[in-house]
Batch of 2 targets.
Target 1
Amino acid sequence: MKLTLTTISAVATLAVTLPFAASANPILDGYKAEIKGTFTAAAGEKLYKTVGPNQLSCSSCHTDSPKSAGKHAKTNKAIDPLAPSVNPKRFTDVATVEKWFKRNCNDALGRACTTQEKGDFMTYVLSVK
Amino acid sequence: MQVIKLFAFSVLVAVGTTALADGGAVTPLLPKMEQECSSCHIAYRPNFLPRAAWKQVMATLNKHYGTDASLSDADTAEIAAWLEKTALDVGEVPPNLRITESFWFKRKHGTNHVKAEVWQRASIKSRSNCQACHVDAAKGDFNEHKIRIPG
């Protein structure tokens, strides 16, 4: 390949921007910036399936797949899918995300989720296509 | 005894008429209350609990009938203030703070009206699941002529 000016500029742009490339989600970026760590979908998936002290896991209401519609374990209320790939409104409002993390981590894990856990969880759910 | 009967009857009438059981206007819900309080179940009507009971509910959202239903301080305050203004000071705080254990609820859903096995049906599951039979419950319409008990 000829090293034209266009090619060099393109490569240079990528080299500069890729390390700062945001995930497509500003809320996830916020968590990343907060703890300056890395999140993995694998850790998120494990968390999703963890059964806590109240005999509840995320799957108890959201089913085994974040792409499926779920149901409240007690009231039967229909729950829209969690994965943005199916439900683009998910994970767009930070107040809503924080509200549900607070409630559901308390219910499912018996305690608040750490920022690491929130980031892993989001990374997993955002990866489900 | 007559006084108790009269009181009981007046509670039934108060709740009955304001709950649109026999027709009449529906109190519009505070939009934030409707939005937040229908996250997991239908937004229950303000007249289903006496004011004092709502106060307790709003003060213990993190321990809401076995779950954490907490809201931001601002939202909690806004909804609590509206309930304080809108709910009636009628009737007693029910046992376990449950609408379904209220005197009037038990009278309207007793075994002479609803057979015991009905509550076990998967389509209904619980007495707190109003809309399973009161199809327009989410709109505040509990008119008894519109009840459809699913199989």
Note: Chain B is about 35% helix and 0% strand.
Target 2
Amino acid sequence: MPQLRTIRRLYAIFFFCLFCFLLWRTEFTHLQGYEVHLFLELDPLTALASGLTSATLYRGLALSLIILIPTLFFGRFFCSWICPLGILNQAISHFFNKRRPAEYVKQNRYHPIFRVKYYLLTVLLVLAAFGVLQIGLLDPMALVTRSFVTGVWPALQWSGAGFYLLQPHFLGGVGIALFFLAILLANRFMTRAWCRVVCPLGALLGVLSWRALFRIRRDVDRCNDCLKCVSSCQGGCDPHGALRVSECHLCMNCLEQCPEGALHYGFIQSRTSLGQPIDISRRRLVESGVTAMAFVPMLRSSYGVESTPHPNMIRPPGALPEADFLARCLKCALCMRVCPTNVLQPALLEGGLEALWTPILINRLGYCEHHCILCGHVCPTGALRPLTVTEKVGSSSPKPSEPIKLGTAFFDPGRCLPWSMHTPCIVCEEVCPTSPKAIWFKKVALTDRKGQTVPLKQPYMEPALCIGCGICEYKCPVADQAAIRVTSVGETRSWRNRMILDGQTPT
Amino acid sequence: MDDTDPKTRRSGSRIRQVEPTWSRRRFLQESGLTTAMAVGMGLVGYWAYTPEAMRQKHQEILTLKDFRVAANALYPALVVVRGRLVEAMVREAVATLGGISRFVQRGERVVLKPNVGWDRQPEQAANTNPEVVAAVARLCLEAGAGAVWVTDCSINDPKRSFSRSGIEAAVQQVGAMIKLPGGDDFRPTNMQGTVLKVWPVANFFHQADKVINLPVVKQHSLSGCTLAMKNWYGVLGGQRNQLHQNIHASIVDLASAVRPTLTIVDATRILKRNGPSGGSLDDVVWGNTILAGLDEVALDAYALSLLDLTLDQVPYLAMAEARGLGKTDWRNLNWQERQS
């Protein structure tokens, strides 16, 4: 029978490849009904935290029960067998953190700093219970997806991989990439430092595995205290001693290292060593919770899109109203991966701290393709509703419906060629996708500096027809700052961010 | 073994400790409990599962009651009272219309809606005269009203507007209450209009039994005048600056959504120019008049003469008449002029 460690490695390779495969599939020509958000849906933490903010278990997030329930019986198998970030951390630790055996023993012992993750989890879940979803900053699935989408994948393209037709660019992608590299680099100093110290999903699974029936057991009579198990331990869970089952990643290294065959994974047997409960202090736990609770009203009273609409916070089609959107968005960036035009970008602080890395449209980088609805269909939490094309573009028959507006375009006549430079242009009118076109023009004959009459077409925008797709801004020949620009006013999802008295009913 | 490490030493005592072997009963208990937790999680998941990301938040959309009292042919439809003593003029006007007991019953909650739009003093005539508001409040309290609330959604800072208009002090002196609408005081309300559909309306108007409109006569550069019908701007929250895009239709929509019990127009001072905010005493003339009645269209039509306007300069009046809100031809109504 193959060794458990070997099986674990095969699983790890399989799931890491599956993760990369699904991420590669997350694209217009390859999507084809693949469950590309599978890893985010399997993640019990995203299901739990988004469930806390809105009391729902949205569609595929129910798949998280596949991880959740076995964890009760078998422990944190997810961390070493399925989690792409855990697998990556383990591989890097394995290859780049080579030590002498004695140093290994020292490094892989349990350390009280491992408790930090439980307090972080507490903070994030208390925030979620008050409707503030910030789990995506540290949740490993969201983090690794975001880092791959805005960092690794574009970097591969830059190095010549050819995943994309054009090199994608992401706003502040370097920040996300540096954070990711720092996590990987930390393995150089402590094996699986992220998983042991920070990972809130690891903490959640740790809590759930506290009474796992299957766990690493040590036969105290066979054990000769050689400490080889500790030297190869990934979790720092003290297999030689009283096992800390909540820290155990089920890497199975210790089983294979033990020369005496004293360790086994399974039920309790005679002469089996003790286990240990989670090493957390109730006082610290309460402190973390209270701190998070105190933070909520302060966060809510800071300036943000909810209090004051921001012109540049243009959300993708199907985005929920801002408060609901922020209560659902994981910042996983999968929408940015699937977006064919690269218009979806991770926001910085335009929409407040809460909206960091949530998707916005930057129309100089791309535009919202008129008949494209992909972003809502890859969103794991429903922050972007899965739309039909008819819902997005509206229809006149059989049931008349309004198109979804992302914002409204405005002309800047001082920069517009026909308006102030006696130069024919009208590209914006040409590319405007609505029918009838939102951009129209008046024919004028102006006298230029030399006294010659120039026939021109000067463009105008019809606010009732403009859907804010931004193609006019993207294609405007004024290369730096376009002469027509979209701002968020008039967006369908908000009944406050409006300018025209149109009798719209709030939804 | 590394005995120099204190942590190892501490747990060292436990290295040789052995868990007691489980009896069959213990095993069944332990595994049963874990299975129960698993089933519980499954049930929670089943209960919480939904194809929608958010649970539907059901926000009730209200409509405003009709606050009018029955028409009575015994009393005039429109009263014009001239004089200088404001309280006496108000009492005379209400008495001519049948007395306050026709409008306010014992125990009712009466909401007074003066125009308190601006951080201006009474002499500047940008807000309703505080003496008028106080006189009406006192009348309502004398009629046994359970509560008299005075409210408006001011354009300037509400605290400053109510304080510097003199209305806060005058009203509190007679024992009525000021209600300043805060962030949570608005309810989505279907105005059922042609341009106004669902708007946030101050909840005080939903809580009221009777509503009395107390406008002031002012010039307004877009609509021509700010009179009784336009005074209903002050029930709205939200982005009501959009109403300027179709101001006449908006005014008619507002007047058809809010049907007051009684309207008393303050023309003691008249802001003739630079309205509706004014600011200079040069813009103000003495009007020494109080108008009262049940027909806002007729009242507004009468008040046009005080601002030297004609009906065709103010399209909303004809639109309101066409909508059946009242009569612009006040001369053919039963109207009376009194001296006080």
Note: Chain A touches chain B through 53 residues (CB under 8 Å).
